[in-house]
Design goal:
There is one protein chain. This protein has 388 residues and is α/β, with parallel strands linked by helices. It has a single domain, classed as Thiolase/Chalcone synthase (Peroxisomal Thiolase, Chain A, domain 1). It has helices at residues 19-28, 67-78, 80-90, 106-119, 135-144, 159-173, 189-197, 256-269, 287-301, 311-314, 321-335; strands spanning 5-12, 34-36, 45-47, 95-100, 150-153, 178-185, 221-228, 234-243, 276-280, 306-308, 355-356, 368-375, 379-387. The strands form 2 sheets. Strands 5-4-6-7-1-8-13-12-9-10-11 form an 11-stranded mixed beta sheet, sandwiched between helices. A two-stranded antiparallel ribbon has the order 2-3. Helix 2 crosses helix 5 (135-144), helix 6 (159-173) packs across helix 11 and helix 8 packs across helix 9. The longest helix has 15 residues, at 159-173. It is globular, with a radius of gyration of 20 Å. The two termini are 18 Å apart.
Length: 388
């Protein structure tokens, strides 16, 4: 089997858009979510908004004019020189694009649909294509002028991780020599109101694994990687996937699907549970997710391995979450730090004990990190990354 490496990484989220800024916040334990009622009129909520300046899309077609694509473009520019070198080396037809998303351009469509409700007509500049789930992958390919396999993945909160697993398969199958892969999701009324209708949203900053946890904060992000078989950056050494299909929106309370995918990732990496230095937990701060995940982690790893959820820093970025949290692990492996678990310190006595990080840093440089993504419908994936 060909080995797979995440050579270059780009990210932007509420954490920031530079490695130095992200490292500082993840080690200091000081999240900066934004309280706003922009997506929940009359009810301010803490959201993981990215408030930096985004580049404009130069293509004139209406279907490309989405905030999702502007996020993708901003991320591409962070690693543009590395991508250009890969295209020059391998050829445009040997470079693929796989992007995970759950919203695509829905946030932009909402404005057009609001006008339709007011006027009875769809504005001429509206193009349904801007919200198709494959739209951002197609946009990235057009922006880079590459012609390898191009597709989007939309499996809810596991989409970004699934994109990285798909990139590895494209490399191993010989269909590509390089893949631009990751996740992009931007805030919209649909997701904020949808999760609110499930009574899964907190009106305060989320506190994963706390006895006081009461729901998620929604966020937005882009995280992209240049993935090749060249030994640079960080190796994607293990992938484990499962589907417990317990419920459309609730996980298996016993954590069976999570146990299977973490165990499969360890087997794929050919390592033992004791070799994992750190786990980036899915850690949504909902009652059922944290209960299930703590049981699964305790079953596979016991209580020793260091863990944290980084969602208090970014919000739950849905289709981008798996890629964003893999990017956080990528950065942690490169820089040698451990993301702090930000919460109120009130551990739920009904949960099995797990070793939540309270102070940043390592006694020694980490080698292996695992990142969990558990999506609606029991669509689960765990990734294991190895530092070089």
């Amino acid at each position: 089997m060909k080995r797979c490496y995440l050579n270059s990484m780009a990210m932007l989220s509420a954490l920031g858009d530079s490695p130095a800024q992200v490292c500082e916040r993840l080690t200091s334990g000081l999240p900066e979510l934004t309280f706003t009622d922009r997506f929940s009129p009359g009810q301010p909520l803490p959201l993981g908004l990215y408030e930096g300046v985004l580049p404009e899309v130069s293509f004139s077609d209406a279907k490309w004019q989405s905030r999702n694509n502007r996020f993708a473009l901003a991320a591409l520019r962070q690693i543009g020189s590395d991508i250009d070198a890969a295209v020059k080396c391998y050829g445009a037809d040997r470079v693929g694009v796989v992007i995970g998303t759950s919203t695509s351009g829905i946030g932009d469509s909402e404005a057009f649909l609001s006008l339709r409700a007011q006027t009875g007509q769809v504005p001429d500049e509206y193009d349904y294509g801007l919200q198709e789930m494959g739209a951002t992958a197609a946009f990235v390919a057009k922006q880079l002028n590459v012609s390898g396999p191009i597709f989007g993945i939309s499996t809810a909160c596991s989409s970004g991780s699934k994109a990285l697993a798909s990139a590895r398969r494209l490399l191993r199958s010989g269909l590509c020599d390089a893949v631009i892969a990751g996740g992009v999701d931007t805030l919209c009324h649909l997701t904020v109101q949808g999760f609110s209708s499930l009574e899964a949203v907190s009106d305060q900053p989320c506190t994963p694994f706390s006895a006081n946890r009461n729901g998620i904060n929604i966020g937005e992000a882009a995280a992209l990687f240049l993935v090749t078989t060249e030994a640079q950056g960080v190796e994607l050494v293990g992938v484990g996937e499962s589907s417990d299909a317990h419920h459309i929106s609730a996980p298996d309370p016993l954590g069976g699907g999570a146990v299977r995918c973490m165990s499969a990732a360890l087997a794929d990496a050919d390592i033992t549970a004791e070799e994992i230095s750190y786990i980036n937990l899915h850690g949504t701060a909902t009652a059922l997710n944290d209960q299930m995940e703590s049981r699964a982690v305790a079953a596979v790893f016991g209580a020793a391995v260091h863990c944290s959820s980084t969602k208090p820093f970014t919000g739950h970025t849905l289709g981008a979450a798996g890629a964003l949290e893999a990017a956080i692990c990528w950065l942690a492996l490169q820089e040698g730090f451990m993301p702090v678990h930000h919460w109120d310190g009130v551990y739920d006595p009904e949960l099995p004990p797990i070793n939540l990080v309270t102070e940043a840093g390592f006694a020694e440089m980490p080698v292996y990190m695992l990142s969990n993504s558990f999506a609606f419908g029991g669509n689960n994936i765990s990734l294991i990354l190895r530092g070089l």
